[in-house]
Amino acid sequence: MANVETWIGEENCELSHLSELVLKDCANLQRLTHNFPLLTSLTIENLPAFVGLRRYPSLKYLKVVACTNWIWGSWRCLSSLVSLTLSQLPSKTLPARLPKILDSLRNLEISHCENLTMLPDDLIPSSITSLCIKQCPMLRELPKGLETFKALEDLEIQDCKNLQFLPELKNLQSLTRLEISGCHSFVFFPIEGLPDALHFLSINDCPLFSKQFEHFLSPDRIKIKHVFSVWIDQKLFSSCRAQGESST
Question: What's this model's pTM, rounded to 2 decimal places?
């Protein structure tokens, strides 16, 4: 609907039972005036003229794709948000911090941001349990403050071809799953090693890492000896821990 500028309802118009809404490819749509008291899932994709959200008290899942910077002024409307996906954003960097109001956030995905070169150290709320960053080819490093995210359980990084290394993760005692794939510049694990709680580790299509890992005395082999399940290029790696348990 290329010509629609405003979806207008009468004063105090309320769609009282609507729970999911998708707005896509409406080039001139600027705003919504309806109330959505039970809206839990919202997707906004390719709305270049959109100016921001109203307050949706029940909104838990938000996906923003190929939009301008209106999202950064809409956080006050998202106090119940649990899952946030930011995709195809044009910026080279993201705002310095998501506000404290997003302490409810548990899952964050940042994807297909072709120009993104960095993530500010204090961007991500410490409440998140799952972080996925993928298809960001210019991204050079992850936030150094990642080690302070004590609730983080799942970290996934895909197709970030300029990413060379990870920040220190040793203190992330909730992190049980780490997956890195398609990161062609990735070379080695953090100097202090990986968290003791890590149970599953998968490294795929990271040729520089795989090349040095092949050496029997590679320091990275020592860093993963406590991890129960380790997959390197889709092959199960027999760690020292696994061998010890099997022998007993």
Answer: 0.88
- Per-domain residue ranges of the chain: 1-81, 115-248
Per-residue model confidence (pLDDT) at position 103: 80
> Quick one: pLDDT at residue 40?
96
- Over range 85-108, report the average pLDDT: 79
How far apart CA 104 and CA 82 sit, in angstroms, is: 6
Which of 28, 32, 23 is closest to 2 using CA atoms?
28
pLDDT in tens, 62-85: 999 988 778 877 877 888 899 999
